[in-house]
Hints:
With 389 residues, this protein is of the alpha/beta class.
Amino acid sequence: MNKLEEFWYCVASQEDLPLYKGQEISSDSCIRLIDFIEKYKQQLGNAAPEVILHNIILDNPSVLSDIRVLVGVSDKRLYLDLTYLANVYYSSDHTRFVPEPREHLLKHDTKYFIRLLTSSPKKEELVMELTKYFEKKGLIDILNTFASLTREQIIPIFNNLIAPKEIQQMQAKYRGHGAEQAFAQIITACGLKIIPKNKDTDPMAGYDPNVDLSTMAVMQKDKNNQNCHSFDLIITDDNSRIRVLIQSLIHSSDPGQYGVNKSDETIEIQKRIRAYNNKLKSDHLVYLLGSVDGVGFSENPSGTIIKMLDAFDDFFQIHTLFKIPVFLQKIGMINTVKGIIFDTQYFDKHAIKHFVDTYLIPAGILNLTGQSVFGSKVIEAGKALVVFK
């Protein structure tokens, strides 16, 4: 089994990639949406639909965050659309919704527009423009359809049709962070120091550290410095020297041009690391590890994953997280791993032999599959258990 065959054998489905948070929408979202529809339904016949919509938004500006899902618009799409609308809009007295001139467009998030609807002297004009925006998106036709349904009929529509789309838009980000947390936890379980130091507990709270690859020093981001590259995690030794740099590229769907560009960047990073290592002793060498996973790489394997695998000193996936302590022991950063217990429901004999011959034996680690390890420290790492001495 070569590297690419190993990758495809162990590749994770979207559902296998861990979610850090956001795996479901709060039930409050459904309740607020139904309340909105009920208010619309109650006023039908007493006013024109666009007037009803206008009044509901003005009475409760925060409803913007809920009604967008009825027209299939993500939060990002909504605030970018509204940012554009606000940038090009001039009222009859030539005043604007935003303080900056049109030639200096600035992004404003959804909360900004909710605040305008709450306190701005121009909130009446803004809600008129928002009503037109949602009308063009077909919201009134959708509301008229929902108005004929009961609350009990609306709930399964939300849960089975609206919520899944909203979840899908959130999950790519959350699955990537979930993977980062998973491998950070394995590294800290091995007793090593990481940067950012809290990645194992809150992967979204930190930052992606930038490193000058000519000096291996953590630095501020500098687009003009060709040696400056960002990484998802750094492992340091007891003297705070960088020993391992980790790039995480998780693609459960088409990686697109971004994936191609990141693959090219990986190759360039490895060249710079090798140039730096040429000046070092063997026990100070810096390594590049890849966290790469997802069926999305099948969209363009030659432009992405095939190029990257040889650029990494090693790689791991969600199902092969056990390779991390194996690699760390191989390069001498730890000497505490006794063996690996493989999940024989996931790995067949051929695959286990591949991992034993390719990774375990060079690191002096035993295959303990099927053996009792009672009393030993054991951690779960993908589709295997890591047994410590």
